[in-house]
Design brief:
Order of helices and strands: HHHHHHHHHHHEEHHHHHH
Membrane topology: Multi-pass membrane protein
CATH architecture of the largest domain: Up-down Bundle
Number of domains: 2
Number of strands: 2
Organism: Vibrio casei
CATH superfamily of the largest domain: MFS general substrate transporter like domains
Largest sheet: 2 strands, antiparallel
Subcellular location: Cell membrane
Helix content: over 70%
Protein name: MFS transporter
Radius of gyration: 23 Å
Keywords: Cell membrane, Membrane, Peptide transport, Protein transport, Transmembrane, Transmembrane helix, Transport
Structural class: mainly alpha
């Protein structure tokens, strides 16, 4: 096969995976834009319960890919597991369309989504790696485009599902809008799977070893049985907050214990890289506590204390639904990613590139600016409602921080982790992210509004007080990140073998 034919084949294969990933993210973020509002406004949850349920769910969503990746590699095959995950996710969103106020319907639906995500997420990413295996020059640009597909899917769904919810509620009754919006998430997955089946031949050469053999019915039955059990366990964790706390803290202690054991038992030349990775993973945990505010305290701030009209000189340009503000995150990511990539490349050519640890410190600094913007918003609020332009500026800082910290998390693992520990380190990174998602829900509860309090003048002070404290916490994280920079430089030199 000629080089041109190989490139065409790779591009088609890559587009097949990217399209199903785009639709999967369409479904997931469309659900995320509404889920906390749904629990509070439709099911009558208190803020504190909604924040913790979603925090626990996000934690499970981050932890589950560790098992799904192993099933894809060793048991069913990467492609089959990815497709099974897409089907399970569609089923989860379908359950959320049931117009019931029984909380167990919600918990089982979220449990199904946790399991579906665990099957889908790691295997879609692994397929992209396999398509460009051995071609480092292409894999970076492929993952950049892949990340853009994620953001395109999430932007459209976060703008669409809140609008559908409002439109249907207004015209067909106050309960059906929620379920119509979740139905759109389900349809997104079905479109993604349909597209995959049309283009599946482009992936015939790629996959893990089990993909090359007929489906082992016994193994498939065992995986499905395990998936059903995992849905039940996830639902129980979401219903009973004590179980969620135990799960999160045990996961944290186990990962930290394994990390310490690996550092103590590793080869001397590996130790510096492992310590550097541990320091940066701990910093990532703090970042994701801030990140989780987007779908909890910031989402509720938009609901209660933000003027939904975008006004310039008294002219209303447009009106948004509270849930649509979350779309500002992927919009900013798409705008800022190419600029950052250009700056990194230019700095690298002039030997002036920041270290990953330096970028983490800068990331925390801009996150602090974002939260201070939200905190300051109370000073020019009218009748407890602040301008929606505050959300645009705050999300801009927030998203830049995400690119500097979260966007470099996997690059950090690739750089510092010894190859033989790559799988565990990737898993540890995601478990750490999951723990911090739950802790983010705990932090959001410092601004939980008591039932019955609806006056924006009262709720404004509660939110701005939390945002100012989070801004100060991000400043502290910035100084800690700066303080460990000399240590990180020494570890980096040792890791590279420069003494």
């Amino acid at each position: 096969m000629t080089t041109h034919q190989t490139q065409t084949s790779q591009t088609k294969s890559f587009m097949t995976v990217s399209m199903i990933e785009l639709w999967e993210r369409f479904g997931y973020y469309g659900m995320q834009a509404l889920i906390v509002y749904f629990m509070i406004q439709r099911l009558g949850f208190e803020d504190s319960r909604a924040n913790l349920v979603w925090g626990a769910c996000a934690a499970l969503i981050y932890v589950s890919p560790a098992i799904g990746g192993w099933i894809g590699d060793k048991v069913l095959g990467t492609k089959r597991t990815m497709l099974l995950g897409a089907f399970i996710l569609a089923l989860g969103y379908a359950v959320m369309t049931i117009p019931s106020e029984n909380t167990w319907v919600l918990f089982f639906a979220l449990g199904i989504i946790v399991v579906g995500n665990g099957f889908f997420k790691p295997n879609a990413g692994n397929l992209v790696r396999k398509i460009y295996e051995g071609d480092d020059s292409k894999i970076d640009s492929a993952f950049t485009i892949y990340y853009m597909a994620v953001n395109v899917g999430s932007t459209f769904s976060m703008l669409l599902t809140p609008w559908i919810k409002d439109y249907v509620n207004e015209h067909y009754g106050n309960q059906f809008g929620w379920h119509a919006a979740f139905a759109v998430c389900c349809v997104g997955l079905l479109v993604g799977m349909g597209n995959y089946f049309l283009m599946r031949k482009s992936l015939s050469k790629y996959g893990s070893e089990p993909d090359t053999k007929p489906v082992d019915q016994r193994k498939l039955a065992m995986v499905i049985t395990g998936a059903v059990a995992a849905v039940g366990i996830s639902a129980l964790i979401l219903e009973y907050q004590t179980l969620a706390r135990i799960f999160v803290y045990v996961a944290g202690i186990v990962v930290l214990g394994i990390f310490i054991h690996l550092i103590r038992s590793s080869e001397k030349h590996e130790r510096a890289g492992l310590i550097a990775a541990l320091v940066l993973i701990i910093q990532t945990v703090f970042f994701f506590i801030f990140y989780q505010q987007m779908s909890t305290s910031l989402a509720l701030f938009a609901l209660r204390n933000v003027d939904l009209n975008f006004n310039i000189f008294g002219i209303n340009l447009m009106t948004w639904s509270p849930g649509q503000f979350q779309a500002l995150n992927p919009i900013w990511i798409m705008l800022l990613s190419p600029i950052l990539a250009f700056l990194y490349t230019k700095a690298g050519k002039n030997n002036k590139d920041f270290s990953i640890a330096g970028k983490f410190a800068l990331g925390f600094a801009v996150v602090a600016v974002g939260f201070f913007v939200y905190g300051f918003a109370g000073n020019f609020a009218v009748n407890g409602k602040t301008t929606s332009w505050v959300m645009i500026v705050g999300y801009g800082a927030y998203s830049l921080g995400e690119l500097l910290v979260s966007g470099l998390g996997l690059a950090m693992i690739a750089r510092y982790a010894p190859e033989r520990m790559g799988g565990f380190m990737m898993g540890a990174y995601y478990v750490a992210c999951g723990i911090s998602q739950y802790l983010g829900g705990v932090v959001a509860n410092f601004a939980s509004i008591p039932k019955g309090m609806s006056n924006p003048l009262e709720t404004l002070d509660i939110y701005t007080s939390l945002f100012n404290k989070l801004g100060m916490a991000a400043v502290v994280c910035t100084f800690i990140a700066l303080a460990v920079l000399p240590l990180m430089r020494r570890l980096d030199k040792r890791h590279q073998g420069i003494h």
